[in-house]
Structure formats: structure tokens, C-alpha cells
Request: fold
Amino acid sequence: MLRIGFLFNHYFPHQVPHAAPYAFELSRGYPDIDVVVACSSRQEMDLVEAIGALYPGHRCTFKMLMVPWYYRMIDPVVSKWSFMRKQIVLWHNLDFFRGLNALVSPEVNCADLRKERGLENLTMIRTRHGAGDRDGVFDDRLLAFDFMLLPGQKYVDRLNDQGLLRKDCFAVPGYPKFDVVMGLKRKIPRLFANDNPIVVYNPHFDQSQSSWGPMGLQVLEFFFQHREFNLIFAPHVVLFKRSLRHGAFLPGKYRRTPNIHVDTGSAASIDMTYLLAADIYLGDVSSQVYEFLLEPRPCLFLNGHHVAWRGNPSYYHWRMGQVVDNIEPGLSQALGQVFTTHQRYLEKQREALAYTFHTEAGSTAAERGAKTIADFVSRKAGGYPFRTGRSFQEKTERTVSRPMRQSGSVG
Reply:
């Protein structure tokens, strides 16, 4: 029996929905494959187990990876600048990785395992996490992976352009996170005591492209002064976790304002709760804009670094809404006409969504990805024949509908 591991090695569980569904479908559909899901944090494992409940009959086993005691003591300080714990986890769990025939992961740091004795020939498969366009996600370390699972044709084209995609070493199953969102059926809480338009501000952590450094506090002050809008401040979870490195500081008054809801890293920041609750997206280079556009709605983009973005593939998504260069008068004017001008961006949003996410009738992204993994590992093992078991036992709807906002108490 071949053993395939799925690795989640972060502080937050935001990468889990991008790969865990493959693990559970692989376990259900291929009884000759032993699937083990390994996590380095309790938050990740909790979400893995919640997703596993959506796949009755799976045979996955779960493993908490060891983080040495001495590093657990210093990590609360170190992590404000660097996520060195990721490397520590890899180094202190080498025996686990040596026991695998293949490793699947949504992050690139595990590429360093190639340097370790006994792991030179480990089959390594990378799934993406997120669906963004920024340059930072196109990295030479991708060449260390034997195979990649991509969410859509956009990534095939972009990786080919950069020489990072080898023929017959990738597949395009789609975006399994949507399977998770559909299955978990999170209810959208009522966050505000009024029905004013809700804006979600979602700055990225990459300070070379993020609006946070040059404009972030100005954005919060704008909504502090303009109570006719509600604001959900839900930055990328890494921004405030690595706060010293990214200059993430938030004056207390913004946490106490009734029209501003602040969340710098809860589960709601990663499971699309806020994206589904909002009427308007405000951001920069986060891939979450594509998740927001699962239901096309108005978008505004903050050009805090005054980049020449037109024609730059790293800003492809900025075609889908108005680009704002300053808070006053730019943001004020853009918000004043955001609903009346949305029609001019609607077709671009639909085109970008189709280009970014592959879909097929009759199967889920998780099912397609699991089959691809099994087929590739079989080829690597010299054509090892896998028996197939049951696939997705209960076919669910193939579309994700936007949940209704709850009435009642303000959360």
C-alpha cells in the first residue's frame, strides 16, 4: 500500500481548504492508498476534522507534527517578524516524511525537504492556496515539485510564461475551497445594527504591493468619519500575525466604533464569512477578491504605491473595479458611485472568474484532484494498479449560493 501525506504547516488554517478535500476524496476513492493528514497547529487540525465530516466513509488518519519545546517558548516573539517555525517543523519531523511515498501541500516551504538525506526522491505535489495574481506567488521553488494542481487556466498561462510549468506535470481540477464553503454552510452573522452598505477591507501582507502601509490607517479613519457605511476590516491573516515585520498596529478607537468590525485572524477571515456578508470589496492584491466575486459585486482597489498597473499581469484583477489612488477625494468619490458604475465591470468580473476557476458539471474539484493525484502517483510508482472505491457518496449542488444575512442580535 502506498502512503500519501498531506502537509499543513502554518499558524492559521487558511491553507487547509485548498488541499484537505483532495485528501478525503483520495481516501474514499482509492482503498489501496493510505492517506495521512499532518498539521503543525491545532487550528489547522480543527478545520481538517471539520472538513473531514463532509466526507463520510473517509479513511484518513491524522497526525500532529512535533514542534520542539524550546521553539514553542520563543516563537510568540520570533513569529512577529519571521515564520521560522515552518522550517523547524520540517527538520524535526523528517522520519515522518521519510515514511511517505508522496507528499501533497499547499505551501512551498516543504520544497526544502529535497535537501534532506532520504528525501531526494520523495514525490512532491503542490496545490495552490488562493487564486491571486501578485508576483510573489510565482516562485522558482515551484520547480522542486513533481506535479501541481491548479485552479484554472489563468495559472497555466502565467506559469508557462514564467517557465515554471513542465509538460504533463500539472492538472487543472478547480478550486476545492468552494466545495468546503458549500459543505460547511456557514451562517452569515448580522454584524451591524443597521442596513447601511457593508464594505470589506482586505489588505494583503506583502508590503511591496499592499495598501496597508501607505493608506491603511487612512482607510480606517475614513470609515470612522463616514458612518453611512459599515466596514469589515479583515486583512490577510498574516498581516497582524507578523506584525513587527509588516507594521501592523491598530489604534483602539477603531475597535470600539459601531460601524467598524475588526477581525485580524479568526476563522471568519478565511471561510468567506465576511466576503459573503459584504456589499463592496476594498483591497489591493489579495486573492480573496476572486472568492468575493463568486457573486459579482462592486470592487474598489487601492493603488497605494502608485504603480503603472495596466497591462501588468500581477494586477490583472484591477480590471474588475475602479482603482483609487488616494483617500480624498478618490475613495470618497468612488464609494459615492460604486453601485451605479458596477455594470461597466460586470462582464470583466465574469470573464476573470471563468479564467481563474475551472468548473465541470457532474464532479467536484476535490474529486477531480483526487483522481489526478492517484493517477500521477501510480505513474511514478511504475504503473502500480489502484483499486477504486466509492467516489463522492452524496452528490451535492454544484453552485455555492450566497447565504442570507441573519437577523437578530449584533455580533
Notes: The first helix runs from residue 20 to 29. The longest strand covers residues 2-8.
